[in-house]
Amino acid sequence: MDAVLSVKDLNVVFSGFKALKGVNLEVYDNEIVTIIGPNGAGKSTLLDAIVGKSPVASGHVFYQGKEITNRSPHQVARMGVGRKFQNPNVYNQLTVFDNILLALKGSHGILASITAKLTKAKKGRIYDVLERTTLLDQAFEQVDSLSHGQKQWVEIGMVLAQDPSIVLLDEPTAGMTAKETRMTGEIIKSIAQTHSVVVIEHDMEFVKQIAERIVVLHQGSVLAEGSVEEVQSNREVIEVYLGREAISTAA
Ligand SMILES: Nc1ncnc2c1ncn2[C@@H]1O[C@H](COP(=O)(O)OP(=O)(O)OP(=O)(O)O)[C@@H](O)[C@H]1O
Questions:
Q1: Which of 100, 131, 163 is the last residue of a domain?
Q2: What pTM does this model have?
Q3: 3-state DSSP call for residue 194?
Q4: pLDDT tens, position by position, for the chain (251 residues)?
Q5: What is the distance in A from the centroid of ligand 1 to the CA of 129?
Q6: How is residue 36 annotated by DSSP?
Q7: Residue nearest to atom 25 of ligand 1 (CA)
Q8: Less crowded by CB within 10 Å, the N or C end of the chain?
Q9: Residue 35 alpha carbon to ligand 1 centre in Å
């Protein structure tokens, strides 16, 4: 089976500082890959390099077999790689429905999108996204009035509305309540039924809820890769990330 996303020997250098050192990563259809690792390990830089936001010094990124290394973020998004950043980037004064509408692939500008007559197909796609992100009941509420967690879901919805086949999420549960975090896990699992998903995450409980394959980054390199159990019992991972406390539980 061919990988949807394939990262080969990737190096990213910021003014002489090697943020990524020979990283390899493969992501297949409908799988969830979770990236963990200490602060500064290079997790966000990896996603940035994939979507063309951080310049790749050497190595390659392939999406559906096509090389996308160092293409513009706009081009990469248009090809089908959706990326959600850490901070919500939503239109607070508009409704949830209008936010999703604006993000739909093929929308042109706020006024044109909102005033144009909606086709049945577009409406259907918006409702599908609202359902997947558990926001149907809030469809006509202003985003301003939503909780922090719901705003994050709106943004996940905006990524889905662009019709990507792979979705990259950078710490989607940051600042969420336990209940919202759990719900986000369910949303991600539902997205993975039809998309590949790559998630950067720190909360190990959440990682256990969603993880199928975990990649551990440390100082710009892949330190380990495997199932939750494999990673949790890996001594090097415990040493650099999970903490000594985990040794007793993993042993
Ligand atoms: N634009 C940049 N210019 C210079 N250095 C950068 C830049 N972006 C990231 N770095 C550095 O690269 C390293 C990796 O950063 P990155 O944000 O990818 O880590 P991370 O694993 O996502 O960390 P965190 O968990 O704290 O978000 C850090 O040392 C960071 O300071």
A1: 163
A2: 0.91
A3: coil
A4: 789 999 999 999 999 999 999 999 999 999 999 999 999 999 999 999 999 999 999 999 999 999 999 999 999 999 999 998 766 679 999 999 999 999 987 666 666 666 667 788 889 999 999 999 999 999 999 999 999 999 999 999 999 999 999 999 999 999 999 999 999 999 999 999 999 999 999 899 999 999 889 999 999 999 999 999 999 999 999 998 888 545 444 44
A5: 31
A6: E
A7: 39
A8: N
A9: 14
